[in-house]
Amino acid sequence: MFKKILIANRGEIAMRIIRTCKEMGIKSVAVYSTADAESLHVRFADEAVCIGPPSSTESYLKMANILAAAEITNADAIHPGYGFLSENAKFSKMCAEHEIKFIGASADMINKMGDKASAIATMKAAGVPTIPGSEGIIADFEQAKKLAKEVGYPVMLKATAGGGGKGMRAVWKKEDLLKAWESARQEAKASFGNDGMYMEKLIEEPRHIEIQIVGDSFGKACHLSERDCSVQRRHQKLTEETPSPFMTKALRDKMGEAAVKAAEFIQYEGAGTVEFLVDKHKNFYFMEMNTRIQVEHPITEQVIDFDLICEQISVAAGIPISGKNYLPKLHSIECRINAEDPYNDFRPSPGKITNLHVPGGHGVRLDTHVYSGYSIPPYYDSMIAKLITTGQTREEAINKMKRALDEFIIEGVKTTIPFHRQLMEHPDYVAGNYTTKFMEDFEMEEL
Fold this sequence. Notes:
There is one protein chain. It is built from 14 helices and 22 strands. It is α+β, with helices and mostly antiparallel strands. The chain has three domains: 100 residues, 3-Layer(aba) Sandwich (Rossmann fold); 61 residues, ATP-grasp fold, A domain (Dna Ligase, domain 1, 2-Layer Sandwich); 235 residues, D-amino Acid Aminotransferase, Chain A, domain 1 (2-Layer Sandwich), CATH 3.30.470. Helix 5 packs across helix 6 and helix 12 runs antiparallel to helix 13. The N and C termini lie far apart (52 Å).
């Protein structure tokens, strides 16, 4: 087992890793930028090293500085958390070259799964369902027509150089294909100077459901059930829950089996998630794989009584996994509390927290790094806490969340607490009837 782990991250995830290190009897090293000198992870780690100025490119993304901090403190492993360098193949390789264990995927694994085209090709080879569509750029309209017939309507035309929704057209029937093909190409040409198009099956009423997996260095993998991450704004998750209200036993068995097959096919080592889009007919398709711990991992921990960070560290130390799959025994919901103003298009709201009261009680967990008097820096992600509630049923978890949000007082900055409080009473959310499009129609009510 490792003697000392350097945590190449900040905020609540750094605190989360420090706690597990203490429980495992492992010394911890915090790294921090000058903007984070007063952060709790600096205070609670056994050692702390300043690695640069506020800008993340000069601190948390500065590989040489982080490796130097690991060497001067004699750390034998680095835990990257999520974000920053957690899925950086070059950093994983540099750690290996310096004989410091990177608690995450190997450089080869990150390269394989980081590139979308390569990941999809790998998953196809593994027999995992992927979104049907063109293999590459479509040559002409005749090929588009033939492909749409093979894939089956509805289909989505996408510009190969696309972004921001430009050059995208949903086509519901063959009579509309020509018009959509011509207008999408014109828009793509005008926006990107490239009118190359590809085609995918249009996923109807999509839900974003991910399967948590863990793989060991002996080629064995298991899954720890699913998380529903469909409530998103601009592709940023706002809240997550497990089990998914959309899930059935048959679908969980199939998705879990596909995720384990994917992990074992690439001989994945560590904690990761296989992310799927699931349509209204309960067909599921591989979207991507995250080769790191996820922000939303606590809800999985709550429903199966399992420390995922401990498992990550154990696997990295060469300890085999049990190999059994885990099913949720309870229901858990996570709300991401961001320093943002939900009444002003979720604009970031950095500044000093003048007053803080945190919720507690049975079935309430709060992962955070902030305190009364803490100044939220403007340089990083705006998430300041994760509020997690767990109950015997979904209804109980929602009721606990409403009560916990009412108790959660943060003054001095704007936060997303009012948004989550309204979400917990939205009829469609309460009914479990939501997709990735949910936020398009959501409007904040004045309190």
